[in-house]
Design goal:
The chain is an all-beta fold and 54 residues long. It has one domain: Rubrerythrin, domain 2 (Single Sheet). The protein is built from no helices and five strands. The strands form two sheets. The protein has a three-stranded antiparallel β-sheet with strand order 3-4-5, with no helix packed on it.
C-alpha cells in the first residue's frame, strides 16, 4: 500500500500496475503517477500541456 500525496489516503494497487503508470486516487480524484513499486510511492501527475505546434 502507498499513500496519496494530495489527501493522505491509503492506496492499494491492482495487479499488473507498472512504474510511471497514471492512476486515480479513489478518495480525492487526483491523478497520480506511480514512481516506485518497492516501496510504493506516488507523485501528483504532471498536467498535460497543449501542443501548439500541431
Amino acid at each position: 500500500m502507498g499513500e496519496c500525496p494530495v489527501c493522505g489516503s491509503e492506496i492499494e494497487l491492482e495487479d499488473g500496475v507498472r512504474e510511471n503508470e497514471i492512476i486515480d486516487c479513489e478518495t480525492c480524484g487526483a491523478e497520480l503517477e506511480v514512481i516506485t513499486l518497492n516501496p510504493l510511492t506516488f507523485e501528483e501527475a504532471p498536467e498535460e500541456q497543449e501542443d501548439w505546434g500541431e
